[in-house]
Amino acid sequence: MMDADLLACIQANPKYQALKKRRGRLGWTLTAIMLAAYYAYIALLAFNKPFFGQPIGAGVTSLGIPVGLALIALTILLTGIYVLIANSEHDRITAEIIAEAGL
Questions:
Q1: Does residue 59 sit within a domain?
Q2: Buried b (16+ CB within 10 A) or exposed e, 24-57
Q3: For residue 75, is it within any domain?
Q4: CA distances from 17 to 1, 31, 58, 95, 99 (A)
Q5: pLDDT tens string 39-93
């Protein structure tokens, strides 16, 4: 368990403060993108149902299917972006903070 002095040392580190802000900003940005896309999809579905009912080409598949799949793909993409940044930049900064704290 960490003692209070070590915890205070880590929390006082400017890199730690910057990391907290950066992580929060990234998380909220990706969340806002996902919410905007999801609510746009739902609003379009609620207010313009015929739009998603349009057939694609000569087949029976409607436009709603690929748009819904694109929404799922966006979720996977945004998750991948978060993981990529967290595993590279955030982990590197965390390691620097730990090294500076003497752990």
A1: yes
A2: eebeeebeeebeeeeeebeeeeeeeeeeeeeeee
A3: yes
A4: 21, 21, 56, 14, 16
A5: 999 999 999 988 888 888 888 889 989 999 999 999 999 999 999 999 999 999 9
Exposed / middle / buried, residue 64 (Cβ in 10 Å: 0-12, 13-18, 19+): middle
Give dist(CA 45, CA 31) in Å, integer. Answer: 21
Q: Which residue has the higher pLDDT, 14 or 5?
A: 14
Q: What domain count does the chain have?
A: 1
DSSP 62: B
Cα distance between residue 103 and residue 25, in whole Å: 27
Q: Which domain holds residue 86?
A: 25-101
Banded model confidence at residue 5, pLDDT cuts 50, 70, 90? confident
> How many angstroms separate the CA atoms of 76 and 73, rounded?
5
Task: Write down the pTM of the prediction.
Answer: 0.81
Side chain identity at 50, as an amino acid letter?
Answer: P
